[in-house]
Amino acid sequence: MGRVQTIDDEARRAAAAQGLDGELEPLPGEADRNYRVGDHVLKLHAPGFEPAVLGLQDAAMEHVAAAGLAVATPRLVRSAELEGGSIARVLTWLPGTPWAAAPRGPEALRSLGRAVAAVDAALAGFEHPGLERALRWDMLRAAELRGAAPQADPVLERFAGRVLPALRELPAQAIHNDANEHNVLVGDDGRVSGLIDFGDVCRGPRVCGLAVACAYAMTALDVPEREVLPLVAGYHEVAPLRPEELALLPDLVRTRLAVSVAMAALQRAEQPENEYLLISQQGVGGLLARLGTEPPELELLRLRDACGYEAVPTARAVRAYLAVAAVGPVCGPSLEAAPVIDFSGEDPPPPPEPSLGRYLEDRRVYDSAAFEAELPGERRTLHLGVDVFLPAGEPMLAPLDGTVRAVEFRPALRDWGGIVVLDHETGDGTRFHTLYGHLSKASTERLAPGDVLRRGDVVAELGDEGENGGWAPHLHLQLLTTDLGRGSDMHGVGTLAERDLWESVSPDPNLLLRLPGGVRAEPPREREGLLAARRTTISPVLSLSYAEPLKIVRGAGAHLYDEDGRAFLDLVNNVCHVGHAHSRVVAAAAEQMARLNTNTRYLHDLFVTYARRLAATLPDPLSVVFLVNSGSEANDLALRLARTHTGRRDVVVLDHAYHGNLTSLVEISPYKFDGPGGPGRPEHVGVCRLPSSAGDADDVRREAEAHRPAAFIAESLPGVAGQIVLPDGYLEAAYAHARAAGAVCIADEVQVGFGRVGRAFWGFELQGVVPDVVTLGKPIGNGHPVGAVVTTPEIARSFQTGMEYFNTFGGNPVSCAAALAVLDVIADEGLQAHALRLGGRIKAGLEELAERHACVVEARGEGLFLGLELTGPAEATAVAEAARDAGVLISTDGPGRNVLKLKPPLVIGDEDAELLLRTLDAALYEASRFSIQ
Ligand code: PMP
After folding, report:
1. Fewest beta carbons less than 10 Å away: which of 222, 550, 695, 907?
2. Predicted confidence band of residue 787 (pLDDT cuts 50, 70, 90)
3. pLDDT tens digit string along 260-280?
4. What are the distances in angstroms from CA 806 to CA 139, 182, 627, 809?
C-alpha cells in the first residue's frame, strides 16, 4: 500500500548503475520508491533505512523461495548503496494482476487463503534478528495506536482487554503479514499466483497473517462476513487452523482494520497533502463500520463450520445431555401415531390433528420477504424445528425444567404469534434453549422473563390462525444450542447452503419428542456446499474424478445418472459387473437383509452354497474358500496363507502392480511405493519388469532366487499397469520359476475375473496356468462389498496353526445372497459370451481408431477388459474429460497415466459400444490437435 511515485533522476541513475535498461514504471510503495524495469523491480530506500530491516526482508524472501512453493514470491537479485546514502535493491518481477484489479470469486478467495497459508507455513522455521524490530503494523502492538483515530479506538480497546491476552497464548512465528490487495497477484486462471512485499514480515501468531488477508479481501466483498469464508477454508486446507486460532479471527480482522485506520490518521497528520492516504482508507473505514466493534457470535460459528469444525462448540454436550435426560411430553395427546406431513412443496391441505411437520425440511412455502437471507438470491427455507399440529387452545408443556428467557407476541403475517424461549442447563452447566412458537396472545401474557417452569408445567396454549402469524394452529418446537445473542428474535428457518451450521445451532427436536419414527428430513446439499463440506471433512487424499466433479445419484445397467437426470455411459465400473442396481441382485440382498444378517459362526445354507458354487468355477485343486469384504482383504489373507504355508515373508511382484489399500499390500504394490508420496521398495519385495515376452519371466527366476519368497503374486491381466495382456507363456514360465524356488503362486483376479475376459471365466485361464491361491473382489458382489480367497486343501491345511481366522462380516448371509445372485445372472444372461462378442467388436473399433489417430499408440485387451494407450498423459486426460462432457465415463491409468481403461459393466449394449467409439473418435481428434500444438 502507498502512493505512486514519480520518476526522478536518482531512480534513472540507480537503474543504469544496476544494469537495468528499459522504461521505469513507477509502482506504489509506502516507505520506499519502487519501479518496474523489464523483468525486475528497482526499490530505492532513503538514507537512514536500517540495513538490518532490508536484510530481514531479503533473508525471508530467500527462505520462502527455497521452499519451492506453487505460489511465486520475489527474490533479491542484487543491492547497492548509492551516492548520498540511498540503497538500491533489485528484485525479480512477478507477473500477475494485483488482487485489487482482479475478479474475486470464491475460487480466487480460496486460492488466496492457500497462498497465505503456504507462505506463512514456509516462514515457520525462519529466524532473523530483524524480526525483533519495532513495527507499527505488528498486530501484537495494536493497542499502542489507541488515541490515533476515534473510529479505531473501541476496537483497539477491546483488543487490549480481551484479545491480546489470548493472542499471546498462541505460538508465534515469522509471518508475511501484508497480504493486501496490492501485494497479492492473480494469474490468468483467476487464482492467486504470487505474493510480494516482505516489508512487514514480523513475528506473530500465524492467524494474524490470515486476519490481514481477510481484512483487505473483505473490503471488496458485498457480504464480507459470508463471502470471505472460502479464503479461511483455503488457508485451513493448507495449514489447518486450531479452534482457538479461529476464535480470535473475527476480532483480529477488526483489529487490523482499526490499525489501518489509526495508521492512516497518523500519516495524515504527518502528510496532510497526501490524498492517496484518504482514498485508500475509504474501504477500510467502511468495512470497520459495517462489522462493528464486537463480532456477532454467528461470525465465529460460520468460520468453524467453514473449517469443518462443528459450528457451535457446546452443541455436542447439549445433544449428549438430552440423549439421556429425563424429558417429559410437550403436549397431552400422544404423538406416537401422528402422521408426518410433507411441507416441502406447495402448501398441503390443512393437516390432521395431531400430525407432524419435519425438522430440516427444505420448504417452498417460505417465500415472503421475511425469509430473505444475507446473500443476494439466497432464501431461508430450511425448517429448524418440528411442527406439532393440534387444535388452538391446546396447552403446551415444558419437557424440561427451565426459566423463561423471552416471551413476546409478534402478530405479523408469517411471524411467530406468541413465542416463548426457555433457558436450560446440562448437568455440567452448558446453556441451551427451547423455543415454542405460534402460541396464543392471552396465554403468553401470563409469563414473564425469569419465571421458572418445571417439567410438565404448561408453557402456554396454541394460538389460532388469527393470532399465530396466519398458520394452521400448531406448535413450532425448536431446540437451540445458542440464542446467537438474539433473545426471542430467533430464526425458525435457516439457509440450505448452511445446513450443517443450522443443524448445530438447532439440533433435532426429536431429542425432546423421542418419537421412534423420527421427525427429520434429509435436505439435498447444494453443489458448492457439498464440495466445501467434503473438502474439510473428507481427506483430499481421496480425490474426485474430473475437473468438474460429477454428482451421481442413480445407476441402472451400464449407465449412471447425475442429479439432473443426465445419463452417462459407465466404462469405469467393473464392480457393478452385471449392471448397476441389477434387480435380481438387489432383490436377493434386500430379501436376505430383511430376514437375517449375522456372522458365520452359525450354520447357514447360503454361506456353504455360495462357497461350493464359487469353488466349482475354479479348476482342481482350488477348492477351499474364505469369504472376506474386499479385494484388499482377500490379498492380505492370501499373503498370510502363503507366508504360513512357506514359513517365509518375501514377495515377488510385477512392476506397476496394485494389490490393495492395506499396509501389507501397499508394501507389495510398486504403483504405490514407487508412486507419488511412496517410500520406495521395501527390502522384502522383489520387482519384475512388466513383460514384453515370455522370456521376461527370467526376472521371476532371478527375484525368486534372490528373495526365497513366500509368494509370487500377479494380476492375470495387469490393470493399473495399463490394461496389459501378458505375453503367451509368460505366467506358465513365471509360475514354474516361482514354484521351483518354493513360492506359492497367487493370481489376483480382483479386476479381471468372473467372465470379463470373454474367452474364459478367469483371467489366468488365458495363460493356461492353475494358481495356488486366487483372490477375488469387486465384481463378485456387484457393488455389495464381498471378497474371496480360494486355495488348495494343502495350503488351507497349513493355515490351521491353532490361531483362529474370524472375520465379522466376511461371508454374512446378505453378502452370500448378493454374490449368489451375481453368479446366477452371469450364467442366465450369458454375460461371458456377451463380453466375448461385444468386447471383440469394441476392440476392432479401437484398433481402427489406432490406425487413424496419431495420438494412439496401441489398442489392447481381452473381452470387456480393454485399454487404449495414447502418446501422453495430457492426451489421455483430455480425451477422458471430453468423453465425460459427451456423456461417456472413462478412467486413465498406466505407469505414464496415458492409458484409457475400458472395463464397463458386462451388460453394456451394442448401441452403447457405438456411442463409445464415436465419442472416442471425436475426443481423439481433438486430443491429436492438442498434442500437435
Ligand atoms: N487388487 C487389484 C488388482 C485391484 O485393482 C484392487 C482395487 N482396485 C484391489 C486388489 C483392492 O480391492 P479393494 O479396493 O476392493 O480392497
Report:
1. 222
2. very high
3. 999 999 988 888 877 666 666
4. 59, 63, 10, 9
Output the CA 809–ligand 1 centroid distance in Å: 18
Amino acid letter at 633? E
Q: What is the structure's pLDDT at 2? A: 46
The pLDDT tens digits of the residues spanning 877-923 come to 999 999 999 999 999 999 999 999 999 999 999 999 999 999 999 99
715 lines ligand 1 (CB under 6 A): yes
Burial class (CB in 10 A: 0-12, 13-18, 19+), 681: middle
Those residues whose C-beta lies under 8 Å from the C-beta of residue 323, and which sit 6 or more positions away, are 511
CA dist 200 → 94, 100, 154, 214, 644 (Å): 19, 19, 25, 16, 64
Predicted pLDDT of residue 372? 85
Residue with cell 499396509: 663
Q: DSSP letter for 129, please.
A: G
Which residue type sits at 878?
Answer: A
pLDDT at 484 over 80: yes
- For residues 109 and 234, the answer to whether their CB atoms sit within 8 Å is yes
Q: What is the pLDDT of residues 421-467, one digit of tens each?
A: 999 999 999 999 999 999 999 999 999 999 999 999 999 999 999 99
Give every CB contact of residue 830 below 8 A, 6+ residues apart in sequence. none
CA distance 662 to 642: 17
Can you give the length of the chain in residues? 933
Mean pLDDT score, 632-643: 98
Contact (CB, 8 A) for 419 and 437: yes
Question: Backbone phi, then psi, for 262, in 5-degree steps?
Answer: -65, -40
Cα of 293 vs centre of ligand 1, distance in Å, is: 56
621: left (phi over 0), alpha (psi -120 to 50) or beta: alpha
**CA 325–ligand 1 middle distance (angstroms):** 46
Distance of alpha carbon 482 from alpha carbon 486, whole angstroms: 9
Residues 24-47 as b/e (b if ≥16 CB within 10 A, e otherwise) read: bebbbbbebbbbbbeebbbbbbee
Distance (Å, whole) CA 173 – CA 206: 7
Beta strands 431-439 and 552-556: pairing type? Answer: unpaired
CA atoms of 785 and 661, how far apart (whole Å): 15
Question: What CA–CA distance (Å, rounded) separates 62 from 753?
Answer: 55
Burial (0-12, 13-18, 19+ Cβ within 10 Å), 795: buried
Any atom of ligand 1 within 6 Å of the Cβ of 507: no
- For 595-616, the pLDDT digits (tens) are 999 999 999 999 999 999 999 9
Q: Which of 398, 384, 390 is nearest to 335 (CA)?
A: 390
Pocket test for ligand 1, best of 751, 773, 774, 786 (most atoms within 8 A of CB): 751
Instruction: Calculate ∠ Cα 80-86-90, nearest 5°.
Output: 40
Over residues 322-381, the pLDDT tens digits come to 999 999 999 999 999 999 999 998 877 889 999 999 999 999 888 778 788 878 878 899
**Radius of gyration over alpha carbons of the chain, in Å?**
34
Q: Residue holding cell 506453487? A: 70
Please state, in angstroms and as integers, the Cα–Cα distance from residue 706 to each residue in 646, 733, 738, 744, following that order: 16, 17, 11, 16
pLDDT computed for residue 692 by the predictor: 96
User: Where do runs of H (alpha helix) occur along 159-205?
Assistant: 164-169
Q: Report the C-alpha gap between 655 and 672 in whole angstroms.
A: 11
Strand, coil or helix: 85: coil
Instruction: Report strand pairing: 33-37 vs 888-889.
Output: unpaired
All cell numbers assigned to 262: 489509526
What separation in Å is there between the alpha carbon of 857 and the centre of ligand 1?
Answer: 27
Is it the case that residue 753 has pLDDT exceeding 50? Answer: yes
Q: Is the dihedral of CA 318, 383, 420, 302 positive or negative?
A: positive
Q: What type of residue is 503?
A: E
CA 822 – CA 224 distance, rounded (Å): 55
